[in-house]
Design a protein that fits this description.
Layout: E1 13-16, H1 18-21, E2 23-26, E3 32-34, H2 47-69, E4 79-89, E5 93-103, H3 109-122, H4 124-129, E6 134-139
Parallel strand pairs: 5-6
Antiparallel strand pairs: 1-2, 2-3, 4-5
Helix pairs in contact: 2-3
Length: 140
C-alpha cells in the first residue's frame, strides 16, 4: 500500500451468515441490514444490490465534481440506474457484469457525455472494477 495516500474515510462493517441468511452491521450503527439470496422472498438485500447502490452514488458524486470543473451545475433530478448481474460460466465460475443507465435532464448530450466519461475515470468504484468486470455505461 502506498504510504503517501491520505485516508479520507474507512468503512467498517461486520458481516455474519453470508448472503444466504446473514446480517451486516457498521461499527457506527448507520448500517444494519439483513442479507438474503437474490430471487428469494426472504427479507433482506444482497451484495449485488449493495454494490449497485454504492457505485451509483459514488458515480454521481464524481459527475458532480466533473460538473464543477466545467463550471456547470449537475441537475438535482439526475438519475443513475445501476444494474449488477451475478453471472456463472463453466470457464470462469461466478462473476459480475454491470450497467449504468444515466439520465442528466437539461444538459446538452455532448456535455453530459463529458461528465459521464470524466466520472468513469475518477470514480473509485469504476477504478476498482476496471478490467475485472464487464461494464456498459449508457447515457439515456
Amino acid at each position: 500500500m502506498e504510504t503517501t495516500k491520505k485516508v479520507l474515510y474507512t468503512a467498517k462493517v461486520s458481516t455474519t451468515g453470508g448472503r444466504t441468511n446473514g446480517t451486516a452491521k457498521s461499527n457506527d450503527g448507520q448500517l444494519d441490514i439483513k442479507l438474503s439470496t437474490p430471487g428469494t422472498s426472504r427479507p433482506g438485500t444482497n451484495p449485488e444490490q449493495l454494490f449497485a447502490a454504492g457505485w451509483s452514488a459514488c458515480f454521481e458524486g464524481a459527475m458532480g465534481i466533473a460538473a464543477k470543473q466545467l463550471n456547470i451545475s449537475l441537475p438535482d433530478d439526475t438519475i443513475i440506474n445501476a444494474e449488477i448481474d451475478l453471472t456463472l460460466s463453466p470457464a470462469d465460475g461466478y462473476a459480475l457484469q454491470a450497467r449504468l443507465n444515466i439520465s442528466i435532464p437539461g444538459v446538452e448530450r455532448e456535455i453530459a457525455q463529458q461528465l459521464v466519461d470524466a466520472a468513469h475515470q475518477t470514480c473509485p468504484y469504476s477504478k476498482a472494477i476496471r478490467g475485472n468486470v464487464d461494464v456498459e455505461i449508457n447515457l439515456i
